[in-house]
Amino acid sequence: MGNWFDKLLGRKQCGCQAGEQTLKDVEVGTSVAIECLRGEQAACQRLREMGFCESAIVHKLADNGALICKVCDAKLVISKKLAENIIVKDVCSNKDKPVDKKMLLLSQLAVGQKGTIHDFVCESDDCERIEEMGITPGEIVEIIRYAPLGDPIEIKVRGYLLSLRKEEADLIEVTV
């Protein structure tokens, strides 16, 4: 199934060499981009399902018998044997430099758009309650859907779905 299926999905066959850098060899605390996956088709498919896709950015958090990595906003644990099948390359250092980011209110984001929570417009009991729900500065938030009349708004933050009233979303500043 491998050859025609990969061509159908636009995946290129791995042409990596034995001396390429693998995720297992990367130092803890380093971010890398996945260049390709090698090994059995089923293992590669499972890695892709977990988020270890070609060109995905992986941050290696720990290496204690198994590897703990952050990929696609999720922390995952994989074995060193699986990590040997993930060929990586260094991430361009320019990518980490700040770009001109646009500041909006959470209620102004479009469906599917992501932003990073910057701050609250004002300090109030409502803002404190919102923070207690996990909406804190620095967290990435994604708009999942708006109700038919625009209120409430369903968002994804910290891996779970949450509904906010539009007036609550108007209190939250995000950078896009």
In short:
The chain has 176 residues and is an alpha+beta fold.
Overview of the molecule:
By secondary structure, this protein is of the alpha+beta class. The protein has 5 helices and 11 strands. The strands form 2 sheets. The chain has a 6-stranded antiparallel β-sheet. The protein is elongated and about 55 Å long. The termini are far apart. Residues 93-99 have low confidence and may be disordered.
Draw up the topology in text:
Blueprint: H1 2-8, E1 31-37, H2 41-50, E2 57-64, E3 66-71, E4 74-79, H3 80-83, E5 86-90, E6 103-105, E7 114-120, H4 125-132, E8 140-146, E9 153-157, E10 160-164, H5 166-169, E11 172-175
Antiparallel strand pairs: 1-2, 1-5, 2-3, 3-4, 6-11, 7-8, 7-11, 8-9, 9-10
Task: Provide key terms for this protein.
single chain, 176 residues, alpha+beta, 6-stranded antiparallel beta sheet, 5-stranded antiparallel beta sheet
Helix fraction, binned, reads 10-25%
Report the count of strand segments: 11
**C-alpha Rg, in Å?**
20 Å
* Main structural class: alpha+beta
End-to-end distance:
40 Å
Shape summary: elongated
The profile of the biggest β sheet is:
6 strands, antiparallel
In the predicted model, the low-confidence regions spanning at least 5 consecutive residues are: 93-99
The overall pLDDT average reads 80
Q: Strand order, biggest sheet?
A: 6-11-7-8-9-10
How many helices in DSSP terms?
5
SSE succession: HEHEEEHEEEHEEEHE
